[in-house]
Specification:
With 411 residues, the protein is an alpha/beta fold. 43% of the residues lie in helices and 13% in strands. Among the domains are: 190 residues, Rossmann fold (3-Layer(aba) Sandwich), CATH 3.40.50.450; 80 residues, Orthogonal Bundle (Arc Repressor Mutant, subunit A), CATH 1.10.10.10. It is built from 17 helices and 14 strands. The longest helix is centred in the middle third of the chain and has 16 residues. The chain is elongated, with a radius of gyration of 31 Å.
Length: 411
């Protein structure tokens, strides 16, 4: 189900730097780039340089023929050639179409140009499963990442972020893994919102297997994207490489629970290098799962506790501001300064005379008596012969019509 997101009129798209936008790929170039996803590991700077200088079609032809291209030695060339001769891009593209997926290349209208910020580590193309526009969704997106073995607190915070971001019209991006990733996706889905799963496998290979149902829901209600062709399985290095796409695709990254060596901190560091916003949700100082987040915050991360604060950083400057948070306003907070001083002068137990209170409040006896009568009318104090004392529960005052009498006096 394609989600319609408010405010997606292009104002969030980063201004491209360097050369003008690439022309749309020809069918032959698309097929060649699909082949490259079989030939080279994601983020191979050498292959990227060939794609830019020689073009996709000539690059694949040279690799298949075993020609030694600039920068590649004999052994590396042989490895590329072995993979190139086994590549069947027509079959991969057909398999993608059969599952309702597509292959998006640089130059396509749906290509998110912020991925170009990765330079030589830019994806050769992205296999995309789902009907929504990847480029449009990426314009208002935030990545929420964190520990796989998270606590109930971390799961709750991630789910809340996903749901609240969705209700505000933002897309939640994560890696579809156990823990924080899954909680963030579920939060967005529960609010019938938009979410993008960036996987380290083929978009037809549910990983982890325990998230097969969740990944299916992401593909149906949101988008599932990956750099690897259909049928590919993840490896440890591919998870690390996947993090750079999450960091570059979104306007900011929020880390919810992470140990010192957590992979989510890799995403945060990449986001920082790319000039994206880096945020962290604090946790208990005694929790090892929050140590990495706290270190991130000590460096130059921004502390956030909810979606409104996240949006304040990634949204429109001066407009998407989080509401100011403060404690409740008590009726006595609304008293004029003179009346407040007299109220503060009253002892907590027993009472005091007017002269004694005038000295304590720093005013004349007549003025002090006037204030005492005002406080009496508001229900803060009562008279006991010549002495004045606080009424039981005198920290508060009666209210009328939704406005406290103290508020009326302050006006």
């Amino acid at each position: 189900m394609t989600q319609m997101l408010p405010g997606m009129d292009g104002e969030y798209e980063p201004a491209p730097e360097g050369p003008e936008e690439e022309p749309p790929p020809t069918p032959q170039e698309r097929q060649a780039r699909a082949a490259v996803t079989r030939i080279a590991d994601p983020g191979d700077r050498l292959v990227d340089s060939w794609l830019r200088e020689l073009g996709p079609v000539e690059t694949v032809r040279a690799l298949t023929a075993g020609e030694e291209l600039p920068g590649a030695g004999v052994r590396r060339t042989a490895g590329y050639a072995l993979r190139a001769r086994r590549a069947q891009p027509e079959r991969d593209l057909a398999a993608a179409r059969a599952m309702g997926a597509r292959f998006v290349c640089p130059g396509d209208p749906d290509w998110p140009r912020q991925l170009d910020d990765l330079g030589g580590e830019r994806p050769y193309g992205l296999w995309v499963r789902g009907g929504a526009s990847l480029r449009m969704w990426a314009l208002r997106s935030v990545s929420v990442v964190g520990a796989r073995a998270c606590t109930d607190y971390g799961s709750h915070m991630a789910a809340s972020l996903g749901a609240d971001l969705a209700e505000a019209g933002w897309v939640t991006v994560s890696g579809a893994a156990y823990g924080i990733d899954g909680a963030a996706h579920r939060g967005a889905l529960s609010a019938t919102g938009a979410t993008v799963g960036v996987v380290a496998s083929g978009v037809d290979v549910p990983y982890p297997p325990g998230h097969a149902e969740l990944i299916g829901r992401i593909a149906e209600q949101g988008l599932l994207i990956g750099e690897l062709p259909p049928g590919s399985h993840p490896t440890r290095s591919r998870f690390v490489l996947r993090n750079r796409v999450i960091a570059a695709l979104t306007r900011g990254t929020v880390v919810v629970e992470a140990q010192y060596r957590s992979g989510s901190l890799i995403t945060a560091r990449r986001a920082r290098k790319l000039g994206r916003f880096v945020m962290g949700v604090p946790g208990p100082c005694t929790s090892a799962l929050s140590q990495g987040v706290h270190e991130l915050l000590r460096a130059d991360g921004v502390l956030v506790t909810g979606a409104a604060e996240v949006i304040e950083h990634v949204g429109r400057i001066g407009e998407d501001l989080a509401p100011e948070r403060r404690g409740p306003v008590l009726p006595r907070d609304l008293l004029p300064p003179a009346a407040a001083r007299v109220l503060e002068a009253l002892p907590g137990q027993g009472g005091a005379g007017v002269a004694e209170l005038a000295v304590a409040a720093g005013g004349a006896p007549d003025e002090t008596l006037t204030r005492l009568h005002e406080l009496h009318a508001l229900g803060f104090v009562e008279r006991d012969g010549p002495r004045w004392k606080l009424t039981p529960g005198g920290e508060s005052a009666p209210t009328t019509g939704g406005r406290s009498q103290a508020d009326t006096l302050s006006r």
